[in-house]
Amino acid sequence: MVLLRKQTTVLPNHRIEISAPELVDGTQVEIVITLAAPLTPARGSILEIIESLHGHRLFQTPEEVRRHLREERDAWDR
User: Could you give the number of structural domains in the chain?
Assistant: First the structure.
């Protein structure tokens, strides 16, 4: 196995172009891409995301959810 290290920039339309004159035309190669930086900024956990939506949640506590479900079940029995 021979390792060649090349650096390039992603081109428009998400393309990558690599020039390696030391390679013979028609030779099978495997390309491994290592990103210099994360693809997206790190986000918080799902709980942090949910908690950031305080004004948009129907229920604020687990007890409110349980109460609502209990009331719904009671309504089925009527």
Answer: 1
pLDDT for residue 49 is more than 80: no
pLDDT-derived band at 2, boundaries 50, 70, 90: confident
Residue 11 near residue 17, CB atoms below 8 Å = yes
In a domain? residue 54: yes
Q: Is residue 24 part of a domain?
A: no
- For residue 16 the two structure tokens come to 């990558």
Which residue type sits at 25?
D
Alpha helix ranges (H) inside 1-78: 46-51, 62-76
Q: What is the pLDDT of residue 21?
A: 92
If you ran DSSP here, which 8-state letter would residue 17 be given? -
Residue at 53 is within a domain:
yes
